[in-house]
Amino acid sequence: MTEQEKKWHKDPKNWKLGLFYYNKEDKRIFPPKRIESVGWTINFANTKSVLAFALFITFFASMVYLILSKK
């Protein structure tokens, strides 16, 4: 992580409600969560990030639907 990315990550203004990362300047699709060792989050200010999240949710919901409809 670059110095700029560390600065953005630590800035409380980039965290909405303390949970949602929102930074228009940050182009990363999956920045680290507030507690970095826990994993990654999405940047809600990045269209590609939100699209990747929506595709993941759609894929997951489709798999659940297919599994449940086979019963």
Provide a descriptive summary of the structure in words.
By secondary structure, this protein is mostly helical. It is 44% helix and 6% strand. The protein has two helices and two strands, in the order H-E-E-H. It has helices at 3-10, 47-69; strands at residues 15-16, 20-21. The chain has a two-stranded antiparallel ribbon with strand order 1-2. The longest helix is centred in the last third of the chain and has 23 residues, at 47-69. The chain is elongated and about 50 Å long. The chain starts with a helix and ends with a helix. The model has no long low-confidence stretch (mean pLDDT 93).
Features:
71 residues; mainly alpha; two-stranded antiparallel sheet; 2 helices; 2 strands; elongated
Element order: H for helix, E for strand: HEEH
Number of helices: 2
Please indicate the percent range of residues in DSSP E strands (runs of 2 or more): 5-15%
Structure classification: mainly alpha
- Roughly how much helix do the residues carry, as a percent range? 40-55%
Mean pLDDT comes to 93
Outline the low-pLDDT stretches.
Answer: none
Major sheet characteristics: 2 strands, antiparallel
Coarse shape? elongated
Radius of gyration: 15 Å
The tally of strands reads 2
